[in-house]
User: Fold these one by one.
Assistant:
Number 1:
Amino acid sequence: MPGFRVGAAASGMRYKDRPDVAVIASEANDGAMASGVFTTNRFCAAPVELCKEHLEVNRRCRAVVVNAGIANACTGAEGIKNARETARLTAEALGVPTSSVLVASTGVIGQQLRMEPMAQTLPDLLANLRSDRWEDVARAIMTTDLVPKMASTTVEIGDRLVTSGKLVTIGGVAKGSGMIAPNMATLLAFVCTDAAVTPQVLDHWTRRGADRSFNCITVDGDTSTNDTLLVLASGAAGNAILADTESNDSRLFGQALEAVLVELARRIVMDGEGATKLIEIHVTGASDEASARAVALTVANSPLVKTAFFGEDANWGRIVAAAGRAGVPLDPERVTLSFDDVGVFRKGMPVSEPAVEEAASRVFKQKELRVHLDLGMGSAAFTAYTCDFSFDYVKINASYRS
């Protein structure tokens, strides 16, 4: 990624013999333009509070420091002090303002960061950053994740009638596997781009992209204390600064950013704790988007629906029952339901055509499937992404701290 250097190292703070601290640093003298979206949980972790504080006074980011294993959430004054100390140590080593350093943490709630391992690890890590270590970063921020999560794309922007345009790159990493639900999910995501963009435009597309990606996914209906999405723009692509959200180039950038965020969000759900399937819940025909969203997420969060997916039981009754309790006015006679292209419910009754049950069961055996619920009440739509509940989900979360 032009304009950034990254790296990871093992501090031994919680895990043994694996990287657990990562850094993303901007090569620009004045840093990268930064935008962030954070958890709405009232028990807001110390690193989230610090990020908000720093972004309030300095939109230019020189570095992001991330640790995995210890969340630094619900840790009181000492937790805030440790988050500040992490930023200070990094800023001192790089010779930059402390307000230009952002921090993020993930892991067990209630444990304090161990600052001695952090202080010992950061100097060497910061001295050995490179442009090609993104997979190391993706692995270092994992907790119960089974696989690293990365996504990238490119888009050409600029007046093609005057110049050949500029190729802009957008790419990032994310972690997340359990305690995943909208506003935001339990996740850390760090996306970098070489586009030149104003803070207002970057904020607009970051928030819009988050709402259409990370705020559309659920694994278990729980939202964490540490959720952080940071988008950094270096300006190294040399494009004319994107300063108008309505311009064609700005929209192209926004679409590309959203595509990267959606892909990272999908990868989080695919790697949901104990998950064996990725399910897209597509609700159409709603009277407004809020209604479509309410129905989609009610279905996506239903334990009965999710266990049916795991058991490969095409139990359409659980889905319409969940839709019916979403608090949205609907007429059962207008509702239709299909699994991929197999229609199983319409006009308030199951479809009784031959072989429907067998075809629906085949769909449920797939690793990825689509549930389409049309409410027949209007033209609004919303898509949520979820996964199944397996035996392993209970095993993982029954002993998370051990």
Note: The chain has eleven helices and 16 strands.
Number 2:
Amino acid sequence: MSARRLSAAVFAPAVLLGACASMPSQPGFDDVRRSVGERTGMRVHWSSGAPEDRAVADAIGELLTRPLSADEAVQLALLNSRELQAVYEELSIAQADLVQAGLLRNPVFGGEVRFGVNAAGTGVALDVTQDFLSILSMPLRKRLAESQLEAAKVRVTGAVVDKAAAVREAYYEYVAGAQVSEMRRTVLGAARASYELAKRVRAAGNTPELALSLERDDFEQAKLDLALAEEQELIARERLTGMMGLWGGQAAWRAEPRLPPIPALDPGGDVQAIERRAVEASLDLALARREIEVAARALGISRPFPWLDGAEVGAAADRELDGAWSVGPRLALPIPLLDQGQAASGRAGARLRQASAEYHARAVEVRSRARAAAIVLNSSRRRVMHYEAVVLPLRERIVQETQLQYNAMQVPAFQLFDAKRRQVDAGAGYVGALRDYWLARTRLEHILGGPLAAPEQPAAPAQSNGRDSAPPLSDPPDSRPGGRTHESPE
């Protein structure tokens, strides 16, 4: 009886702690939802079989009834992605680790029966023990698990934000590909018409065989260019379809037919401000800070307790051969002769130093990525503006002038077809530059953790093309010795 009372006194707190431990539903997801909303403006949903799941399914169905914009494609992907549903479970795993850290190890019951050899009777030894280290280290283990849960929130947020950026990039790739395919069909139509005309002229004996062969070469190349453009368009569409989690009838979704024009204003010129914002908003750095905290917590556990692993405390009761009982506490401590915990402490210290070094390395990388993304954004913007201000108007004027000369019978129809093909080729180049701009903008916004804020309008009058940043591309420097750079007259 005394053994049972002592056992109850020692282990009652452990039983109460175990009874209070529980697993909350969708732990930490509110923090993830809030952070994702701040960075992307999008909603996220963790399916749980609740009525909200039906509302999300209805929202997805409603989005699929109309051509998707880039924002709508991203929103659909975040709501419909099974991949993200799997990522969210990392929060439950981290929460389970936190609950586990707050639990004592189960007590261990042991018993022995001894039979008399030189004397009659039976001896009995009973004991109940509890791991001693789990009692002392529980507060430290809980703080470590809490840090790991916070790190899991950052990782999950990062996965969602990465998904949003990847879907947006895939959307721009697909829409640009569809536009290029459309233009290649126009080129093929012009090449076919020019080739048919050349065959008729050749049949009348008014053009050499070489001219006909050249026209056919253009026609055959146009067919190859269209086939490649359609292949790239379909691949981009399938990639985006998979990223949005669509299949079956849902795979017939539609997108907007054109890429949006570049905005009138861009904040890409202030590289220092972009670099500062990137460092402040970086989820990579936030995760690195959490990893340093986790490593520091682990070091805090390993330093005071490494040699205590296997220590036990409890109660024991013995009955001797003559039937007399004895009851008392039981304590088992390892003797730190061979292992004093140097390896465990050294490993934890190395991981802390490693996490610190990785943080500084990531900080340098984030700064570099931000600067590079700003450079690409500004460069792609200038290319788009050059197409708009110089190349497209020039090709249009060439077509108009060639049309006038053709109407006056001053140039052959082949020259007019060629001018129109060159105009369509310029349009395809413009679409490519516009795609590059939106990809660069998406990547920079991803690095900055949110949309780019347009700078304040300048006080000076706007340029004639309505853009605020650098003018169209200038001519390259003269490669001859002493050559000078000539600015574009446009």
Note: The mean pLDDT is 81.
Number 3:
Amino acid sequence: MAFSRPSLSEIYGRIKADMESRIANGSKVPRFSLAGILCAVFAGAVWSLYGYLVWLGRQFFPESADDEYVDAHAARFGIMRKAAAYAEGIIRFDGTVGVVILAGREVQTTGGLIFTTDADATIGSGGSIAAAVTCSESGIVGNTRDLYLYLVAPLTGVATEAPITTAPAGGTDLESTEELRARVIQRTANPPSSGTASDYVRWALEVSGVGRAWCLPAELYKGAGTVGVVISTTELTPVSAQIHSDAVDYLEGVRPLGAVLTVEDVMPAQVYYSISISPNTVAIQNAVTEALQELHRSEATPGGTIYLSHISAAIMSSGVENAEVMNIVVDSVSLGPIDIEVTGYIVATFHGATYSTFT
């Protein structure tokens, strides 16, 4: 039987009854008497102790522990919270031949996000030069979709506007507590072995920037002795080339000898929904959108299926009175209200929904 923390009034009643039976010989203890006041004081103290014990009990298990205690559980297994990473990209400087752009030169987005050049660059005979840049702030904020960066301070002989030729990517936030919690739970449920599928998943998730990972054993991949590991960001999009390379290097260093390993990137399939809901309010629409996003994050797998029944359940859990999926579009192909099935390394990613009112 699960423990239930008694309420403050229940504890007060127990202490008062004990006072009346042991001190007052069965007489009632007046509320504002010394004994009555002591009952209230003791009840408050005991109730707080019960609260501490309930809180302490939650910290024993990674599934319910608070942030700092999740880190403590992780440390027991040598699991560290993954650090934030800086986005990197390539831009083009146009200008006068021979002008040198020194390392550390600052450029910025229209929103004021600063990037700096990684090395000295000299404008060549074509009047331009490619330069690698790194965001000054860590996290996904650096994965900008701007088309241009701009010199913060003018540089003689160089155009202020620098086109982005390779979009900055690879920026990742500090690993969230829930992501770390999931890795700890995965580790406790799957003790290290000699290269099982769960081992490869755990190893891949230890790489900064890898948010999701799946292992394809030999029988599902390319035959005996082969292992395929599919990786993605937390949002089920392909990781940057640098993160992919980091994952390959790390997995090659920990995999068992003899295994032929290949690291694959996911191929996102964009999924859009047309849904009739009641009531059709902005708040309900936002709730349904959030539920569908979480459904795809939790259930989408390479070559897997997201069932229409699960989609409907997610929508109905969002506070709607009535709802019906009218159409599902995958990569611009209208499928109607059916299960979403993908193959290979494709994952079904949520990209939006349109809402209508029942007619």
Note: The mean pLDDT is 89.
Number 4:
Amino acid sequence: MSRRHMSAVLAVLGLVAGVTLAGGAGPAGATFPGMNGKIAFSSDRDGNLEIYTMNADGSGQRRLTASPGTDDRPTWSPDGKEIAFSRTGDDSYEIYVMAADGSNQTEITTTPGENFWPAWSPDGSKIAFMNSLDGLFYDIYVMNADGSAPTRLASGGTPDWSPDGSKIAFFRDSGTPFPSADIYVMDADGTHQTRLTTDAGVNYEPSWSPDGSRIAFASTRVGGDFDIYVMNADGSNQSRLTTDTANDEYPSWSPDGRKLAFSSSRDGKAAMYVMNADGSGQTRVTFNDADDEDGDWQALADSDGDGIPDAQDPDGVAAAISTLPADAFAGGGGHRTAFLSRLDGIERSIAAGDLSGAIAALQDLRRKVDGCGSVADHDDWIADCTAQRDIRALIDGLIASLSA
């Protein structure tokens, strides 16, 4: 969320005079179970807040958006292939969706007023979000993932969907003592709203753990600055994870549930940090004279549980090779066996972390299927031209995923 929007939210709660936020974006969305992928975050290092991605250790930082306004509050889709985010335009916020590489940026909201703070449902079919008609009072809406059929659920803000899709966590002004805000949960249709926190101060930015058992959040209950806390999903066993006197905010679980990303201003400007789920091992991972914040962790699917994300797993190519008839291969069953043996070796390289070696081996294997329809190539292992094109496309996709 931008500084303008966060200030407006806190103004509703009467907090602007008493609380200085570390940064300007919103908290991370729900983290879905899977393998740990990249972290999307927002940064104003190039002037405006824009969306970036990086590896969990801070390496491989890449800028995805470059709009003239503000791009913030990135949240990964459950399959890790898309990112929803908020963007300013003509002094209004709208929700956009883009591919994981930043391409195909598309505005999807049509609800009057300002629309921001998106949160995907676990099945990827819906997005919850905040809406404001006047910049002061906020409601939670849900819409289809294409932006259609927006429906109001409740007053409040910062929605976060439980991993099983049954509930949404959010925050709301609690009225007393002043100023205060608390974390609530409700059924996904807006019913059965239940208050989870009752401590003085501001409790907001709920982030549901991948297994649905816990909720991380930010709170000013001790000392007036924001710290990261965690509690059971029913509100019990609330415990403090960070104790720095600066603001620690925007918690986001890793898909394996072992770590939390968060932002902190403890070193001056807001920066991205990663810590263990018990609060130990707090490590800074971005280093810029700018505000880096609002992280959200990508979940990568691993259907066969072999520790290799589906998008990087050679099993898809192997399955396609296995289904081809023997007469599709120049050398019959022998070339099929050789192909599958090569893919087994490539899978072992990926599992060992040798991605450059796996890419080189895939490029060599691709040369075995690149002659049909152009120059005669006696090394072609697949004689059928249609099969060559199909296998070549699968190998190219695997190389692109491993190179990302």
Note: Residues 82 and 175 are 38 Å apart (CA to CA).
